[in-house]
Structure formats: structure tokens, C-alpha cells
Amino acid sequence: MLRRSLPLLRRYSTTAASPSAKPTAVSRFWKKSLPSQSADGFRIKLDGRILKNPDGAEIVIPTQNPILANLVAAEWEEMDKLIKAGSLPMTSISVRGIELAGAPETREGVITNLFRYLDTDSILYMQDGSEDGTEGILELQEKYWASIINWVSAEFQVPITPTYGISSVTQTPEAISKLRQFVEALSPIHLAAFERAVLSSKSFLISTALLKRGVSVDFAVAAARVEVDFQVMKWGEVLDAHDVDYHALRRDLGSISLAAVFAASLLHSVSAFDRTSPFIIAQGGATRGSTLKQTNQFNDAIETIPCASVTLILDQPKVHASDLGRFSDSYSAIKSMMSDASSITIPYARVTDGVQSVLSKLSEKCNANDATTVLSASDISIASADSPRVFVSRLASLTGSMEHQQLAASENSKTMSDLITKLESLATDYVVVFTSSNSASQSLVKRSDVAETGATARAGNTTFIPFNNRNFLQKYVLFNTGLFEGAIALFLVVSVSLLGVNILVSVQTPTKFEQHAKK
Question: Is position 513 within any domain?
Fold first, then answer.
């Protein structure tokens, strides 16, 4: 069963897969996914069974990449009942990176293939404005494509020349040489991420800017979708097509951004988790792992937090784990403001039992009633870092129309930037980042209750209920998709069964007249 699911990981590769390796839908068969550390690296265990690549070899993530190992384990932990192609981006990048590390010839072939995308890069072919009705796309191309071209040109100190219309264009030998030096210097994991970015965005230059942190994930997605978005603006959106493609691209480029930032992160030690929706607490060279599965499991984590610290808690409902890559610029800001490069937390956790427990335990531990400060996204005010402070910022949910989702993503990025700016003014050596994420589709919760809960959190009330918490959904059993459908199915089965029994009895049981006639 495990081996059957892994051909799905071959989706992003510039080399052909075996004709027999056809992706098939596979049901989830494991209960827990855990990273396991050994002398030669990290292995991912699904109920004790080691995760293997499509060729049957164990997937071993290097010891210096603990965050990547935990992200891979988290993907499998968050997997829905059915494994779908493209739903394991971090795993795919890791497997491809390991493959490239052990095959120099394959690596060279990948680099050669990637450079074929440079001269045919879509963002180099601009509209010349000679046709009617192209005003909108010219603005988009100038905003996104020209910005990336100018950034790459300035970053590498070489001219990058676009063309207008359909005429071909070739870059200078100097530009190609410098870009090739950049690609050849990439680590195996980063090369795998770059390959995935190029194949997803269909652009060598967008991928270069994304991998080098020149643009955010949202900007890269918008640049890759200029022509699609122009058509949507002109003709309207096709549901279950444009929106699905948009989220798939954000997931792919988000995972690439995460890999770019955290694949090379050096942490001295990482604990194993009983559940891989972890947060990693880092201070100096010491790193400790814990989870937020049950309220009574907070104790061990809280004890690691010194009283003179800053704690940043962010909730991001209904966002795939890999989408957290769009905040990687802000995480880089956190990392840069800390003295030790290892003092960076993994940007992935799901708060399953509420923030109030954390607030209470922090106050009790530090013997201070005002140990926490709860802030809304619109009222960020930090005075000092004399006591632990918990900043609860309700981020906008990425639901609804594509326009609303893009607006919410932009607002969330601004919220993060504002928080980081405030934190940079503090003399702190300790930051804990909590981010909520759940890709499970448990919809049909009462809209009014969700809105009311969100409003309460935004107002600064410390009572906190995650939108995606299963316990929260259980309070509205009839609105839980699975239970509701199950109840209807059970009712229909019982009704049909009783009807069948009634008909059977009425046919086989002789009437009183028949019984009397036989006598």
C-alpha cells in the first residue's frame, strides 16, 4: 500500500517516469506520521513503517535539515482520506533532492533542461500594444513581468532583454553564464525546489526571483497567472477550473518558498513528536520540540519558555501547510533580528485546544496576572518585553471568491509585516511562532457561528476557538459533512431494509382464508 502511493511523488521531474508508473488514487492507511532521527538523518515513519521512494529506497533527509523532515512528516499527518497527486509538495521536493544528490549525471541533465525555459520564458514576451483591448494585460505585464526582469537584472548585474510581439529573443552569453553559476551552486534540495518552480510557473525568471527571496509567493503566483487573470477580468472566472489552478499554483510555489528558506536551517537538536503538528521552540543553540494535541500536553512546552520573552501566536484558518511559504519574508525578518541563526521556529503548527490554556499557564508560571497581552490585527501596541506576551492576531480566512482570497492574502501579509516591525523594536532573544493550518474539508459549519467566533477573537477576547478544530465542529454534528451524509445513508438503508422485510413477510405468510381452505 505504501509503495503504491509513492509514484504520485514523480509529478515534478524533468526526467520521464516509467510507463508503468501510473499515478493511482490511494486511501490513507496510517494513523500517525512521525519523524525519526538516527545517525545518518531523518526518516519518516507511518505507523512505524519507514517512508520509501518510488524505487523502494528509504527516504533519508539529512541531519542538518530537521525542519524539512518535520514539514514532510506534517504533510503525511495532515493528509486527507485520499492521497491525491500534488498533495505532497514537500515530500516530492525532498525525494527529488535526495535523488539529485546521488546522481551527478541526472543533476547535470536537469540543469540543462531548465535552461531551455530561459529563452522561451513567458515573461520575456510582452504585448506590443498594437492590438485593441490589450490595455489591461499591458498594465499587468508592467506590474509583474517587468518588475521581475528588472530585479533579476539588478541582482545578477547582467542585462535581461525582453521582446515585444512574437519575435524570438536570446540572452547574452554573460547573462546565461551568471545564471548558470547560480543554478549550479544550488544544493540538491534547492535545485529540486527550483525545478518544481520552473515547471509550475513555466518561467525560469519567476523561479529565480522566488528562490532568491526577491519576490513573495503571492507576487510570483500573480506573475505566473498574468494572462489567465487578464482573461478572467475580461470574460469572467470559470469555477472549478481557474480557482483550482490558482490554489494548486499557490501550494506549489508556497512549498518551494518553504524549502528555499528552511531546507538549509541548522538546528542542533530536535525531539521526536507524538503528533506532527509541531511547533519547535528555539533559543540559542537549544531546540525543543513539542505539540499542541491536548491541553495537558502544554506543560512541557510552557516550561521551556523563559519569563522574559515574546511569544507571537498567529492563527491562519483553512490554509494548506505549504501556503505558509507566502509569509517566509516575515520569517526571514524574525530570523535576522535574532542573534543565533538557529533561533528560528518552524512555521507550522495547529492550535487544537485553544490559546487560553497557553495564556493561563504562562501567567501561572511567571506569577504575573498581566503576563500576556492579547492584540487584534488592527491594534498592535507593544510596550516592553519584561514578561511573556502572547500576540493573538486573527488573520483573514482564504475562502470565497478568488478576488476575496487574494485580498485576504494581501491583508494577512500586511498584518504579519506590522507585527514583525513592532517586534523588531524589542530587545528579545526568544520568539515562538504558532501558525494554524488544516487542509481537511469539514465545511458546512454554521456561517453565523463562524462569523461570531471570528469577531470575538478580533475584538481581543482571549477565548479562542480554531475554525478547523474537530471538537468545534462536533458541537454542530448535523453540519458536519461526513456525519450528516452518514446519517442520511443510514436512514435510507434502514428504511429500504424494513420495506424489504415487510414485502417478504407479506408475500410468504399465508392469509387466514388460505389456511382455512387447506384445512
Answer: yes
